[in-house]
Amino acid sequence: MEVVNALGRRKAAIARVFVSEGNGQITINKRDLNAYFPSPILQYVVKQPLNKLGVAEKYDIKVNLDGGGFKGQAEALRLAIARALVKINPEDKPALKSEGFMTRDPREVERKKSGQPKARKRFQFSKR
Hints:
The chain is built from 4 helices and 5 strands; from the N terminus they run E-E-E-E-H-H-E-H-H. By secondary structure, the chain is of the alpha+beta class. The chain has a single domain, classed as Ribosomal Protein S5, domain 2 (2-Layer Sandwich).
């Protein structure tokens, strides 16, 4: 099997993944998954598509992660892995789609408006 690549985004985070045959090694920015995401919850989020299909020990995954916070990065990586798995085997798409792993979360930070402290918050109104 040749290397399959895919892209995942969430908020400001961008994940580029390269999936190849292997034994379940996930390397993020030249660091191990457990070192990059110490939180077990985020490790679980990243591995969700692999566990759903039962192929966690079948592929080696190399990742370039950039931007955003750790939660956004983990969710961007989950989307990228799911997209790569569908490229490898298109029959897996309905299973991943039913769990919501194929959906790009479109929510972004609203821009700050001028004359206000934040996007929606206003400065205190003074009548006198």
